[in-house]
User: What shape does this take?
Amino acid sequence: MAKLKDQYADALFEVSEENGTLERDLKQAILIRDVLKKTDVQSFLLHRHVPASAKRQLFQKAFSEKLAWHLMGFLYLMVRNNRESLILPTLSEYIDRINRRFGKIEAKVVSAKELTKEQIESIRTALAKKVNMQSEQVEIEITVDPDVIGGFYVLMDGRIFDRTVRSDLNRMKERLRLKREEVANES
Assistant: This one.
């Protein structure tokens, strides 16, 4: 499946590049991703009893006259080939490729509560250092998830940077376990 996702992303990227529309297509791909990632929309798209015509109609209503022909064609192709589950992963890869071309990287920050502008900028600066980029090259998408027990985690470039209370507690628990084993081995 990963290979197929990459092939679709390659094809989309190639068309955008040939058309000289990478910047416009990036904005449109982000729009599609943001609309389609909603839980109810995903449920609709992935439901096997929803006919392809209804899915195409959803795309038409949501995106008519807002998308380049190749992006709309991509959506229709995915439905026709029963590959709805690959739409979001392919779009994410496509967006990442365009961002890399422009020297940008996208990071998703998930926090327990709303972050202040200062906190967001601090995170942006730290992430930029980690990937050797300027902070303005790091695009941040913020999501609040009440299930996160304090702190935040970041998804960026296929990596997770976890600064949640839960992960801190797990690390502490592991250190205590190792310390107990060490003490038991000394006895």
Q: What stands out?
A: The first helix runs from residue 2 to 19. The chain has two domains: 2-100, 103-170.
